[in-house]
């Protein structure tokens, strides 16, 4: 299941494993104080009005494929808490997408909008995590209509 949350001027959809598509409510962000980091990608929606769900969860070293236009958030289990670092490799192809990494609710890395017809948005960045208790990160990708992207959160070495 891939979760995409509505943002202004971007389409939103939830793509279920069955191929069905359902609307999702916009995220209200994480609870607690608003330290200016904005929405952490947390939130919930409902495919049929009867249940709720959060972001998809994956293990590190697994490729994450395009969730389409809008915002797609995925939780990645990295197997250890901070401080640590890992490599995020990505391919955003010809349409620019924004990739952001959150740890314990705080933005720790952003690629900025990457992708064009020249280098196809191929790249990688080292993500440094501060001290903390969590053993997962949330990756949020924001893309316009007709976008296509994939990325991998590599396990810390």
Structural notes for this entry:
This protein is mainly β and 157 residues long. Helices cover 0% and strands 43% of the residues. It has strands spanning 2-5, 14-15, 21-22, 56-59, 63-65, 70-77, 84-91, 97-103, 106-114, 122-129, 136-143, 150-153. A hairpin with a 2-residue loop joins strand 8 and strand 9 (106-114). The chain starts with a strand and ends with a strand. The model is unreliable at 1-52 (pLDDT under 50).
Annotation keywords:
globular; four-stranded antiparallel beta sheet; 43% strand; Jelly Rolls; mainly beta; 157 residues; disordered N terminus
Topology at a glance:
Elements: E1 2-5, E2 14-15, E3 21-22, E4 56-59, E5 63-65, E6 70-77, E7 84-91, E8 97-103, E9 106-114, E10 122-129, E11 136-143, E12 150-153
Parallel strand pairs: 4-6
Antiparallel strand pairs: 1-2, 1-6, 2-3, 5-12, 6-11, 7-10, 7-12, 8-9, 8-11
Keywords: Signal
Organism: Nocardia bovistercoris
Protein name: Secreted protein
Please give a quick description of this structure.
The protein is 0% helix and 43% strand. It is built from no helices and twelve strands.
Largest sheet: 8 strands, mixed
- What does the overall shape look like? globular
CATH architecture: Sandwich
Which whole number gives the mean pLDDT? 73
Report low-confidence residues grouped into runs of 5 or more: 1-52
Distance between the termini: 28 Å
Number of helices: 0
Number of domains: 1
Query: Approximately how much beta-strand content do the residues carry?
Result: 35-45%
Kindly report the CATH topology: Jelly Rolls
Percent helix range: under 10%
Q: What class would the helix/strand composition place it in?
A: mainly beta
* Number of β-strand runs: 12
CATH class, named: Mainly Beta
Task: Summarize the helix and strand pattern as letters.
Answer: EEEEEEEEEEEE
Radius of gyration: 15 Å
């Amino acid at each position: 299941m891939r979760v995409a949350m509505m943002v202004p001027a971007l389409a939103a959809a939830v793509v279920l494993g069955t191929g069905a598509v359902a609307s999702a409510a916009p995220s209200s962000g994480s609870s607690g104080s608003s330290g200016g980091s904005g929405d952490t990608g947390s939130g919930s929606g409902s495919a049929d009005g009867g249940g709720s769900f959060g972001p998809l969860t994956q293990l590190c070293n697994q490729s994450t494929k395009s969730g389409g236009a809008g915002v797609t958030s995925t939780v990645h289990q990295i197997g250890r808490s901070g401080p640590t670092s890992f490599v995020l490799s990505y391919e955003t192809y010809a349409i620019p997408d924004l990739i952001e990494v959150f740890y314990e609710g705080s933005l720790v890395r952003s690629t900025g909008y990457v992708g064009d017809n020249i280098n196809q948005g191929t790249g990688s960045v080292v993500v440094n995590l501060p001290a903390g208790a969590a053993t997962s990160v949330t990756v949020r990708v924001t893309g316009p209509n007709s976008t296509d992207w994939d990325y991998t959160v590599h396990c810390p070495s």
